[in-house]
Amino acid sequence: MRCGESMFQIRAMQHGDIETVMQIQAECYVLDAIEPQSTFIDRLHTSPKTAWVVEDTLGVCAYLVGYYSTVGNITPLGGRFKPTLSNCLYLHDLAILPRVAGQRLGVTLVNTALSQQPDHIQYTALVSIQNSVSFWQKIGFETQALDTDQTENLQTYPQPAFYMLKRLIK
């Protein structure tokens, strides 16, 4: 993929990327949103086909981590992904280094993830934090209400936090 004068490559996240992913997370998120390295290792092991990175000439500069879930279910911040019968790709974490901001890498990563989904995945969902609702709305996500148990899980994220959903057209 070419963006401006830079070349970017999207590929599956690998175990060797975790240290860099942790650095990106620390640079992009508020302290209350940072999850431990052991959590990322567990998630990559649990759902390796739903984690991607973007590389440029300087190395990994963005990532997207997701897992399969059902609509309306949220893993608490720092919680373990629990594989379930699924109809939804839950996008848990998207981060892009400021040095590559403005290159549309977030949209490209999301579109890459959605293009690789099997037919039974009818939705994609996420929790929006750090004033990112407008970004997600621009690419088709809408805020959704949750039941009481899931609202408690939503409260584990830095506030304000919003559950958002997008129906996939296949």
Describe this entry's structure for a reader.
- The chain has 5 helices and 9 strands, in the order E-E-E-H-H-E-E-E-H-E-H-E-H-E.
- The protein has 170 residues and is of the alpha+beta class.
- It has one domain (2-167): Gcn5-related N-acetyltransferase (GNAT) (Aminopeptidase, 3-Layer(aba) Sandwich), CATH 3.40.630.
- A 7-stranded mixed β-sheet has the order 3-4-5-6-7-9-8, sandwiched between helices. A two-stranded antiparallel sheet has the order 1-2.
- Strand 1 (2-3) and strand 2 (6-7) form a beta hairpin.
- The radius of gyration is 15 Å and the shape is globular.
- The chain starts with a strand and ends with a strand.
List the topology elements:
Blueprint (H helix, E strand, L loop, with lengths): L1 E2 L2 E2 L1 E4 L5 H11 L8 H10 L4 E6 L2 E11 L18 E9 L8 H11 L7 E6 L4 H6 L3 E2 L4 H7 L7 E6 L3
Parallel strand pairs: 6-7
Antiparallel strand pairs: 1-2, 3-4, 4-5, 5-6, 7-9, 8-9
Pfam families: Acetyltransf_1 (PF00583)
GO molecular function, one term: acyltransferase activity, transferring groups other than amino-acyl groups
Protein name: GNAT family N-acetyltransferase
CATH fold topology: Aminopeptidase
Instruction: Please give the oligomerization state of what you see.
Output: single chain
| Class inferred from helices and paired strands | alpha+beta
The number of distinct structural domains comes to 1
Radius of gyration: 15 Å
Name of the CATH architecture: 3-Layer(aba) Sandwich
GO molecular function: acyltransferase activity, transferring groups other than amino-acyl groups
Organism: Aquirhabdus parva
Keywords: Transferase
Protein name: GNAT family N-acetyltransferase
